[in-house]
Write a structure and sequence with these properties.
275 residues; Double-stranded beta-helix; 23% helix; 33% strand
Length: 275
């Protein structure tokens, strides 16, 4: 199997220090079993994968995501409440649409890890797929938090290693009870900690001095110190772009945009965390 995978010679361009790669001249709707294994293994080595010029139906998008794990069914009672409250809707039971028509409109979405406020022990991974773009170019920024956490002050990292983050959505959801999570969490593939506490969903970290402005604290002491040329990647969207990102080892930030932007999104439970 290993030799066959090497013979594929996929066109892989490393963009950021072996954590962001672009795969070109590949049709995600028609991958062979060997190619699927190669993509799966590559995602384990990297943290963000970019596939350009894709043209996928909803079923093809779902099938592609199933390479990585069990795709979430949006029709389940709990999760459907989330997507209906935040986004413009879902096109079927597996594919959501995220656009300026949703609750979050077209403004900035601060640095965050997806679904930390969701009442589930394990966080999922996600894919974004650009199907409609009109107006000025727009971008999504990613930080490699596994690298980044080695750049923050030692005392802050030691505090985070045993700290608990209190997470709650800053908008109305079907569940309003805060969710407790480790502020940083061990990644079983990269064998290091990734950041869970963020600017958007985390409301507090237990152990901070009373009266601390949490949002300022996390930005000044953690996020800003993680940003370097090596740890920051900005993806400027083009039609047909498909971006797979590891929600356990990255945080991301949506730039404000002018015009129309429609992304399809699929969520799945990553196989790594089910073993």
């Amino acid at each position: 199997m290993a030799n066959k995978v090497k013979e594929l010679e996929l066109k892989i361009t490393n963009i950021k220090n072996k954590w962001v790669s672009e795969i070109s001249d590949v049709d995600c709707a028609n991958l062979t079993e060997i190619e699927k294994a190669e993509v799966y293994n590559l995602f384990g080595e990297q943290k963000v994968l970019i596939f350009k010029e894709q043209s996928l139906t909803n079923m093809q998008l779902k099938e592609f995501c199933s390479i990585f794990g069990q795709v979430w069914n949006n029709s389940t009672e709990t999760y459907s409440g989330l997507q209906q409250s935040v986004h413009s809707g879902h096109e079927d039971n597996f594919v959501e649409t995220v656009s300026e028509d949703g609750l979050l409109k077209s403004g900035v979405i601060r640095w965050h890890v997806d679904l930390t406020h969701f009442p589930s022990q394990l966080l999922p991974n996600r894919i974004l797929y650009a199907v409609e773009l009109e107006g000025e170019p727009s971008g999504t920024q990613f930080i490699d938090t596994i690298q980044g956490l080695h750049l923050i002050d030692k005392s802050v990292r030691e505090f985070l290693e045993s700290a608990v983050a209190i997470c709650k959505a800053p908008y109305e959801t079907p569940w309003n009870s805060p969710v407790r999570r480790p502020a940083i969490q061990w990644h079983p593939i990269h064998n290091d900690f990734g950041l869970v506490a963020d600017e958007l969903f985390t409301q507090w970290i237990e152990g901070l001095e009373e009266g601390t402005d949490y949002k300022q604290w996390i930005r000044k002491n953690v996020i800003d110190k993680m940003v370097t040329d090596e740890t920051l990647y900005v993806h400027n969207w083009n039609l047909g772009d498909l971006v797979v990102y590891d929600n356990y080892s990255t945080i991301h930030y949506r730039d404000a945009f002018v015009g129309k932007r429609k992304l399809k999104r699929v969520t799945w439970d990553q196989n790594w965390f089910r073993k």
